[in-house]
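MODEL INPUT / OUTPUT PAIR
PAIR INDEX: 1
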Amino acid sequence: MNERIENLKKAKAEQGLTYEQIATKSGVNLSTVQKVLGGKIESPRLDTIAALEEALYPGHISEHTARDNPREISIGNQDFKTIIENNYFYKDKTMFIKEWWESGDVVTLITRPRRFGKTLNMSMLDYFFSNAYDDTRDLFKNLAIWNEPEYRDIQGTYPTLLLSFASVKGNTYEMAKQQIIQEIVSLYRKNQYLIESDFVTDKDRDYWNMVGYDMPDAVASNAINFICELLYRKYNKKVIILMDEYDTPLQEAYVDGFWDEIKSFVRNIFNATFKTNIYLERAIMTGITRVSKESIFSDLNNLKVASLTTAKYESTFGFTSEEVMSALDEYDLLDQKKEVQKWYDGFKIGTKNDIYNPWSITQFLDSKKLDAYWANTSSNMLIDKLIREGSSDIKKQFEALLKGESIETLIDEEIVFNLIDRNESGVFSMLLASGYLKIVEELGEIGMRKKCRIAVTNNEVMHMYEDMVRRWFEGGSSRYNDFIEALLKNDVKYMNKFMNDVALNTFSSFDVGNRPSEYAEPERFYHGFVLGLLVELADKYHIVSNRESGFGRYDVCLEPIKKDNPAYILEFKVHDSDDEKTLEDTVKNALKQIKDKNYDADLLNKGIQEDMIYHYGFAFEGKRVLIG
């Protein structure tokens, strides 16, 4: 709301209008006009703001149209021109153009979670700056940027290249490389007219003809630089480059195991395109992560980074709370404000604490149903890999997050993919950059990293995590569910059958490194198993796990939410061949430990009857499990 009032004030000053003139043009009472534009009404009526906007921006179609005639929502449409021409639902982000241009930065990297409006904003920039389109001025005449006269003069005047790596998802190096090459070849096809220009030499044509699906790496690296040169010679103006989702091939390479191969190929392209390119006017790169400088940006010292923790462009990507509330009002959904906040609020960018992802909000406005829209838009393979294969410490931290608690960790904004899985800082930094965690509190800096308190972003993300954990035990999940059912029925025979199935299917998934599972620490499997309990029984039990490490005990307590239900204490022990001849001996020692250390005491103090507390010993030897 404040932003809209500020825009109205600016339009009043630029047009030299008096309050009386605005009142006459808008039909709004003079006193109200003075109070609204003077900032003396904290929450002016939306129809009043819409009337003033119509008066100050002739032909402007207010984003707060009447509730009985809301704008159509075009789900998944990322073409700015199509959205504006059809008056589809849109939040005006055009002041990003001014903010970026006035920064003076040569190369800007903006990192935001997926589905946060990056592609739509890049499309907006393309239509604003590019001289390749027929008149596109009408697209912007009713938007905020058109209140800036100097920007009307530069609209549509620059040669502009827009390319995206969003679809570069090959699962081998050769496939990913070919997909990047296809994007470059596509640029050449779109600009085929250049090679037919009078200024082109035979050597130029020779190089142009080398650019193709089978071109050498050296040609691919310099291809964007070369087309910039031709554009400069054609228009006598340097080129704006817009590269969307630059890090998609890098994330896929890490997941599929060819990171070391692709990083040099990508680094060479970036160096020639953004560092040594004398025909470059400005460039923007967008992505989810800030990949470490040493990995691919080592030669790029003219890079300005705007990450989630920096204030620059903090309102440009994603919806602010004000924008969401106005959208709910437009679609007559303000009565669901609190639920929408629980489900979709929680993202923090710079100083803005209440940022929503646009994908979920537009889906909700369209369907009017609360659901996990954003978290279900991809397979989340990288996130799954980092947590499932993470150390026992990471899983212990994740247990707390699944319970709705916050944890303290170090955050490094530069993602080092080849080291990401070696410490919890790398894992949680990746989860934060991807939007799956939020910073609750910044606790200080330690060297180049920040110490932060973090938590799960919102209800939608929590549902994504729960579904992810369930998939760990597929093979199926029915076996795991059957195990839970057998546990609650105290059916030891079936517990043994199902637990051995679960262990066989999942032990290797939780065990990473070069050692075989029978020699690996069992904590990874144990804490993965506990996460499964947390997901499946959260509505009936408080799950408490002992957090000791090493080859000692790992007891789990299932404390019933309703005191008349049974409680369970599970003791996990790894078979010690020096002290125990058989797995049966290990089970006996586990049960003895529960009794000797009086683990029942806390449950008894909470009013649970002794005969309603059940003890189980779990003995592990490699992938063999015995329960007693």
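PAIR INDEX: 2
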Amino acid sequence: MTAYTLPETPAPPTAQPRTAYLVANGDLRESANTAGWAAQVELERQLEAAFTAVGWTLERAHGVDPATGHGFISSQRMGMDVFATIPPDAPLVVAEAVWQYSHHVLPGLRDHRGPILTAANFAPEWPGLVGLLGLNGGLTKMGTPYSSVWTVDGTDDWFLSRIREWVDTGTIAHDDSHVRPLPELPAGPEAGPEIQLGRALAADLRHRKAIIGIFDEGCMGMYNAIIDDELLNPTGIYKERLSQSALWAEMQTVTDAEADAVQSWLERAGMTFRLGTDEATDLTPGQLRWQHKMYVAALRIADDFGVDALGIQYQQGLKDVCPASDLVEGLLNNVSRPPVASRDGERILWEGRALPHFNEVDQGVAVDALVTNRVWTAMGLDPATTLHDVRWGAESGGEYVWTLEISGSVPASHLPDGYASAEGWRQGPVFFPAGGATLNGISKPGEVVWSRVYISGGALHVDLGRADAVELPAEEAARRKETTNPEWPVMFAVFRGVSRDQFMARHKANHVQVAYAPDAATADKALLAKAAMFEAMGLTVHLCGDVAI
């Protein structure tokens, strides 16, 4: 009989009674983990106090690394090793005070059999709640049950009562009364023009099909941002999988004169730039030149492959090679932007049109941006659309106002005076060592349609709602900008008929998609057409808050 060397798999550890185990997932970038560690320590202190108050012990499942000085899980391999030491049936808390790469912990969470609680701080300085929403979107896609909680300072009754509910029952019941299914829409000639438009656009999409160009999938561990082909293709949308190395190579072929023409166009349009000389901390003309080369290169590659929308990963790989992609992304999403000629000089690429860009290659955003672009364009509206991180929020003037913030650039038409309201700030060195400009500003007040495409139960879903982009008092607006990332553009938004906790409990992504309409009636019509198009594409449509359907 042949003898084989068998692995020695240890018996799983045994859970201790009235004990929950805590893991802290972090970034892949050590600079971000180091900078955010103090915020994580404070969140864990709040959680430990809350568990102690209900007679439970909160035990950290992994220690602080003396070499790095922080206690974050910082890779997928490390996450697997940590979860191998956790009792598989134990109550588990995933505590998030910073941005986190979900794939570090998804293998362990996929197999974990005990109750799972995702918990975040609710502070503007660090994107813990953004990380929580991204992780929740991944768990929802994966079909792994979980509960969630969040807190400003660890002392509010809502937070403490939810901790008690979770330790007593293993789950937390949140209020989702703001969500309702899309009602049955009229068929045939009884359907109004918006419903007919949405259905016609969906039929056209299925017939002629569309391509989303993806410069490398899986940005920053966002498992929730990847839509499998088997779900995507039945809508009529297909992927062109591109490499960021090809983008970098194409950038080498763009001349300095072509890049400098982009800069001149932006300056003539009124955009200003905060320039300096220190490459490590300042925005420099050299960084801008490389960004403009990326803009030209992206359009030419998109033309090569005939794509209908484009996404650049950037934040792994290219971040070590060249300045940020964000300025490029904001420009692409705007109808008015610097002209770029085809290689042969015979055509202006996408002349007079936006090329929808989905930041961080978030494919939920890709589907949404493509649909928005087609509906808004068919209705004669400005199709400029973008995603924002759901960064933070607080009461202001008797309303709950969210600070939505994208990590780099919005389309200029989202700002009060277009490019004349836009400033280019250097991307922060913690996340962007090679720098590059943002397209920064505060979004104009107005009527907004918000949305999110996500995966749940093995199928595509979309949440749709209405919001008001609002103008805050100057002092409050400046305070909010300064306490988040002041180099990034923001929108101050009130989600109609949706409370803070309802939104947090329901939203299945770190990103929310926004598009403007010129008035309330037009926004309602655009939302209806968008809902009809999504439904005809095969998505399950959910209406959130006060929606006039």
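PAIR 2 NOTE: The mean pLDDT is 97.
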